[in-house]
Amino acid sequence: MSTANSAVRLAADIGGTFTDIVLERGGRRLTRKVLTTQQRPEEGVLDGVRLVLDDAGLHLSDIDVFVHGTTLATNAIIERRGAKTALIATDGFRDVVEIGTESRYDQYDLSIEKPKPLVPRALRFTVPERIDVHGSVRVPLDEGAVAAVAPSLRAQGVESVAFAFLHSYANPAHEQRAAAILKQKMPQLWITLSCEVCPEIREYERTSTAIANAYVQPLMDGYLARMAEALTARQFRGAIYLVTSGGGLTAIETARRFPVRLVESGPAGGAIFAAQTALQLGEDKVVSFDMGGTTAKICLIEKGEPKTARLFEVDRASRFIKGSGLPVRAPVIEMVEIGAGGGSIATVDALKRVNVGPESAGSEPGPACYARGGMHPTVTDADVVLGMIDPQRFAGGTIRLDADRSRAALAQDVGKPLGLSPETAAYAVHEMVCENMASAARVHAVERGAVIAQHTLIAFGGAAPLHAARVAEKIGVARVVVPPNAGVGSAIGFLAAPISYELVRSRHTRLEAFDAGAVSSLLAEMSAEARALVEPGARGLPVTERRRAYMRYVGQGHEIPVTLPAGKLASNDVPALRAEFEREYATLFARPIPGAAIEALTWSVTVSTAPPAIERAQPVTLNTAAKPRGTCAVFDGRNETMIHVPLYRREDVRAGTLLPGPAIIAEDETSTFVSANFTAHIDNAGCIVLNRKPSGT
Amino acid sequence: MTTQSAPKLIDLQIMWNRLIAVVEEQAQVLIRTAFSPIVRECGDLSAGIFDLRGRMLAQAVTGTPGHVNSMAESVKHFIRHFPIGTMKEGDAYITNDPWMGTGHLNDFVVTTPAFHNGKPVGLFSCTSHLMDIGGIGFGPDGTDVFMEGLSIPMLKLIDQGKVNETLMAMIRVNTRLPVDTEGDTYSLAACNEVGVKRLNEMMGEFGIDSLDALGTYICDRSREAVLAEIAKLPKGTWHNTMRVDGYDAPIDLIAAVTVTDAGIHVDYTGTSPASRYGINVPHAYTTAYTVFGLGCVVASQIPNNAGSLAPLTVSAPLGCILNAPKPAPVAIRHVVGQMLPDVVFGCLCQAIPERVPAEGTSCLWNLIVRGETQSGSGRNYGFSMAITSNGGTGARFDKDGLSATAYPSGVRGTPVEIAETETPLIFWRKELRPDSGGAGRTRGGLGQIIEVGSGIGTPFEILAAFDRIDHPPRGRDGGHDGAAGYIGLKSGKVMRGKGFQEIPPSDRLVVMTPGGAGLGDPHTRNRGRVAQDVAEGVVLAAGATAYGV
User: Fold this and answer.
1) What number of C-beta contacts closer than 8 Å exist between A and B?
2) In this predicted structure, what is the pLDDT of residue A363?
3) Which residues of A touch B186 (CB under 8 A)?
4) Of A237, A245, A290, B521, which is least packed with CB atoms within 10 Å of its CB?
5) pLDDT higher for B456 or A28?
6) Cα–Cα distance measured from residue A538 to residue A500, given in angstroms and rounded to the nearest whole number
7) What is the mean pLDDT of each run of 10 residues along chain A (697 residues)?
8) B225/A556 Cβ within 8 A
9) Which residues contact B91 (CB under 8 A, 6 or more apart)?
10) Following DSSP, what letter does each residue of B228-293 receive, concatenated?
């Protein structure tokens, strides 16, 4: 295999609308965007790959590594296009996924609907068996009852089955035995075990995760098999990797077993892209800000590593509200997503407040200025009226914008009800959407115990560069970076991801009764299993291991990850574990609780290859005097006047040239707004960097 | 309507949003640091910001309705006891007085003044449910409030950053769960501190030195919006009587709802007198759930604050169960208090039937259990836990009711695996209860069947606080009643819906939560939905006859 630098690497990101292809060789990149072919997505990928290979004058046989991310699994769940799936649960627990959290995600709305389980009640079976919290068998598995389910499954044409028994994370024996019995009866059946896909405490999340895996498995397996076959037929001899929600790469075999881990891989690519930019620039604390047409996603990145979580929701029923989706417990790059994008619609609510999103005009009919029938003002319309977007050159001039329609829509829906001019209404919309994003970033940072103002904001996605400076002002951030190639950021991010796998398992242990031997052997077992999943993909590359315990004070409900020392644990490690937990706790919640007992619920082992080495960009020599391409009139809402702002083209500006704000740096894909509080330059990595001016200037 | 300049107006709107974000953050800190399982797993808490006049400006929507509005009143009591001029930076105040707080001793309310540039500008307040506060425990059996546990009058918890150790020692020694209770007290104070910090940042950013203008803007806009919604309603007075089980005798909850251009008033004249046992409701808590029910129907999109709450008023004669004075026992006040939205809906459905659901389970069906642990290690008095569970909600005009879902409470259910980690109990069954949803054009939500026994061969105790066993949710407009609740032993003995009882080690507790009531003639129900209900087993052969199948 070639070394990292000379290797030819290809990445494909299948999105809902577009499939992005990136080819990288010796630090140079070629990119292509093609339409996603919904029914057989591999066709779109292969088309795009062919185009980019032609551009490069290469063949598939020249490719060393092919990295692949897809929203197929997510979309299958959202559109309910997965396999006919059944659940087999413990007797007495048929309805765990329907009972759910017993709560309402909107306290005041009497008309809410709960997320619809992927398995209807008629396909939820139970069998006598029971394991307790300690893993002891209370009721032996009724093997005859398991076998007796088979005829019903056959009769109903079930393709895939999830097993989710109570406390199976503590003792998997019953799930494993029951699966073996069923497999023997129905060899062609797809089977998911909750103890394998999610060996963690809390039955609702574990069952929901197992079901989601079972639901997408036949579809994903078919797709992955066809893709592998098509590549082999075209003389591809390299390695194929899939991107997981946790931001790592995994071999195709693992992806076929645990396809639920591929859900949310696209957004993960964006976060890795930002992390890669952070490493290039030597930025230790970063908040990534990805704003597209419908949503904005925010992620914290520390020392080049995006923050991760263990739970997310798919298919939220309404308005991004927590609790309105199906929970999936799997390692995931932790992001907040809010309904704030270029297409988000502005309204005036019952309280006469300007409200932006979460409803979006999407790309059809799109913002009013697209003149495709959109009658309501969007964030993009506000930006047009403010003068931040040049209507003639939007999307490289491919879409002509009609500023009059923007103005009319803003006047109608926002200006009139509040007695504001269209320009001031546009300012209100712009401010409000920036405030919403700033709030989301602030709350997210607090939940992670981070101080948002100490971060650098890395902005990408079509709408982010126009709003990043204002968001930065609101959260007190001193530096904003807009990297190049921001439009295909996810696919580029894929190329930077390590090959890795995180295994998580619940085993309840109190620190005061810490059994070092038992925990060490659990971790050793998990390590061996994770290595077996990573090593085929690593192809001899050295791997590293990180082990964590999810700990809390006895009686609390949320666990905090604590990194464990390397090697075998001993009972004299307990004071160090306590100290480390209390340090993390104080970071998050200001003060530890004196003398309270500590317990660990869950343990994780992550095995991963080293990420590709990233070269630090050389510092740039700053100099003044750049001639703008022209000026444009931008509305200054705070003073209610038009001001003339210098306009630059990104490709015209040489590295190091200082561009004091206010200024606009336009390019084909997007424009960056440099507010009066910032000075911009382009660095040696091609990034636009905005630094806050020293105060008082 | 406004004299502000356009940018000032936009600033006010943005600061309003910011305050809502700040109290959400305050609530999140509380959830993440709480010890009490019902707070951290179930969200039984609330948090809000108040101006110096005690007007609530914003409140986290994660809270439960019973906390939210009653907490709003309690801040006024704090200000009365500790005048703003005497407050110092770094202070925090506490009480669990049921009449000045949120209705029972288990709720600690902590209020913290916020200072900006050395001047007091507002107050943050929060409340959460602590698992044990001593006394006879969290059940309805006390016959006065003194039996129900430790009372904390209005006291200073933190004096300019210094914790009141005497009070902490008193709290620790008076609870079966000293570590948790002390930890929860700290977490209440910590979440307010986060709020204070954020408020300071906001005031610095927008260059304001008082919340007066913002507070007035928020309250005026909200009141106008609620009044605009009320203006769309028919005007008049509507009456309703709802009978519930009570402790030892049935209770009549009698309401008159009057809608005028000035607002909505609910009067509970005629309601049964206070009970001898701990199901009585302090007035603030009565107001809380009444206003919550009104809010869901009339103003669901308008955030809660002093302005939006002002047009919604409540009265109840002193001495009735909905305005029980000290020293009435009140520990389980939620069982009756949570019925009040249904009582109000019964009035409103006469005026706006399409916006109001049929009766539901309404009160939480929490299994409040305690007993020994195997080794006696861990908690110092064995275990004690409230395992949150729910019945079905009433059918809606165009949708079925929700199965196993809390309403009006906003708390989450306890995962079985978590309950089994923290108690030595074993759950043998927890699933939907077929045929429990009242038949109708739209069907009531289903209740649950729960079966639980000891895993270590010892007896355990339940402090039952269930209702709708003798008086199930009533159907509307031809819809059938929801199934009545049930509590008993697996061996067959029927148990009481209220009060302390023991489950022998060889037996199991069986609880069936009520189903929501149906709405409209079942024969007019969409046939496809009937067939689907039968196929899914939520309606059995017996139940299908109601639909003419």
Assistant:
1) 225
2) 67
3) 591, 593
4) A237
5) B456
6) 9
7) 62 79 86 78 89 92 89 85 96 97 90 92 98 96 98 97 96 97 96 94 96 96 91 89 89 89 85 91 93 88 89 78 88 89 91 88 82 92 93 74 95 94 95 93 82 92 91 94 83 85 86 88 91 80 90 78 87 89 79 79 89 77 80 89 92 89 87 94 92 75
8) no
9) B82, B112, B113, B156, B158, B159, B160
10) HHHHTSPPEEEEEEEEE--SSS-EEEEEEEEEETTEEEEE-TTPPBPPSSTT---HHHHHHHHHHH
Please say whether the beta carbons of A298 and A440 come within 8 A: yes
- Give the list of residues 6+ apart from residue A18 with CB closer than 8 angstroms, or none: A33, A34, A35, A36
Q: ipTM value of the model?
A: 0.91
CB B329 within 8 A of CB B277: yes
A359 touches chain B (CB under 8 A): no
CA distance linking residue B258 with residue A345, whole number of Å: 38
Question: Residues of B with CB below 8 A from A195's CB?
Answer: none
Q: Which of A479, A441, A439 is nearest to A457 (CA)?
A: A479
CA-based torsion, B226, B232, B237, B241: positive or negative: negative
Where are any strands of DSSP class E within A473-576?
479-482, 500-510, 543-553, 560-563
At B236, the amino acid letter reads G
CB contact under 8 A, A554 and B179: yes
Q: What is the distance in angstroms between the Cα of B445 and the nearest Cα belonging to chain A?
A: 11
Cα-Cα-Cα-Cα dihedral of A215, A218, A219, A225, to 10°? 150
Question: Which DSSP state fits A617?
Answer: P
C-beta separation of B145 from B328 below 8 A: yes
Ramachandran assignment for B13, one of left (phi > 0), alpha (psi -120 to 50 degrees), beta (any other)? alpha
Among chain B residues, the shortest Cα distance to A128 is held by B428
Length of chain B: 549
A111, A351, A554, A598, best to mutate vs chain B, most B CBs in 10 Å: A351
Contact indicator for B385, B37 with CB cutoff of 8 Å? yes
The token pair at B422 is: 């923290």
Structure tokens at B372: 């020994």
Beta-bridged to residue A660, according to DSSP, are: A679
Q: Indicate the length of chain A as a whole number.
A: 697
Q: How far is CA B156 from CA A37, A162, A425, A645, B153, in A?
A: 66, 55, 47, 56, 10
pLDDT of B200-250, one tens digit each?
A: 989 998 899 999 999 999 999 999 999 999 999 999 999 999 999 999 999
Chain A hits for B31, Cβ within 8 Å: 557-558
> How would you label A532-565 residue by residue, b for 16+ Cβ within 10 Å and e otherwise?
ebbbebbeeeebeeebbbbbbbbbbbebbbbebe
Q: Who's near A45: CB < 8 A, 6+ residues apart? A: A12, A14, A19, A21, A68, A227
Inspect the interface and report whether the beta carbons of A556 and B388 lie closer than 8 Å. Answer: no
d(CA B184, CA B195): 17
- State yes or no: cis peptide before A662, omega within 30 of 0: yes
Q: Are A414 and A375 in contact (CB under 8 A)?
A: no
SS3 A637: coil
**Rounded to whole angstroms, how far apart are CA atoms B377 and A400?**
73
Side-chain half-sphere CA neighbours of B451 within 13 A: 15
pLDDT tier at B196, thresholds 50, 70, 90: very high
Residues 6 or more apart whose CB falls under 8 angstroms from that of B190 comprise A589, A590, A591, B29, B33
Residue in this structure with the two tokens 């444009």, named with its chain if needed? A632
Three-class SS of A578-596? HHHHHHHHHHHHCCCCCCC
Check if A320 contacts B (Cβ < 8 Å).
no
pLDDT (0 to 100) of residue A362: 72
